[in-house]
């Protein structure tokens, strides 16, 4: 395996899960999010796959994650999510090409090269690849983290492709837990359609709804985008560590008055008249 070179970042080294948790807490208190970042390559056919491990280098990753078709490994949406996740648990992100089947094979290569992770995940096309890889692996993951899952194809027509996008979710085994993180303005993941698909799935599912976010997890104002990305990463890592099967919905929103991300508590289910966290906050102040 090619020699790994750690990025030069000043950060405490964690030698155990307890040390990692302590380091993450210290970094968050100091305004830093990612404890460590290690860049390395994984052999793949006659080439290599570029990978980044965010978080403690001495603990197996909790999540193997990949980007979408519209942005690479360095995309802000990927980096912000990974940093937020790494404040709680280690995550490996890898760079793939734009071919879906090839991306699935890359999941195989990264997982086989590393210690088994609890979960696979990705954003957009990467989320589809994670679902497909999960059912193929000899040791399937216990969970999937799907950011901006594309239920419909991009473009003006936004066509549904039930077999390639919906059925693969329905076919997931009941032993797999699935977390969806989707914006309510995502043109490729209508939340009503997602609710319909979730109702058909054998796997248990959870949803984090990001108010005002589009398919790229962009929100207004622009200054809030990074904070939203960090928060969704943190929520995903905490969910992976511990989750309540009876509470499967929570909502995240940016509060202009507070200049902060507000996250509602996990609820039993999503309801159409659920108020965003900032509305609840303002109502309580009256």
Automatic annotation (TrEMBL):
Q: Where is the composition biased (Basic and acidic residues)?
A: 15-34
Q: Which Pfam families match?
A: Abhydrolase_11
Task: Outline the extent of the KANL3/Tex30 alpha/beta hydrolase-like domain.
Answer: 107-224
Coiled-coil regions listed in the entry: none
State the residue spans of region: Disordered. 1-34, 266-286
InterPro entries documented for this protein: AB_hydrolase_fold, KANL3/Tex30_Abhydrolase, NSL3/Tex30
> Any idea what this protein is called?
KANL3/Tex30 alpha/beta hydrolase-like domain-containing protein
Q: Which organism is it from?
A: Zymoseptoria tritici (strain ST99CH_3D7)
What broad taxonomic lineage does this protein's source fall under? Eukaryota, Fungi, Dikarya, Ascomycota, Pezizomycotina
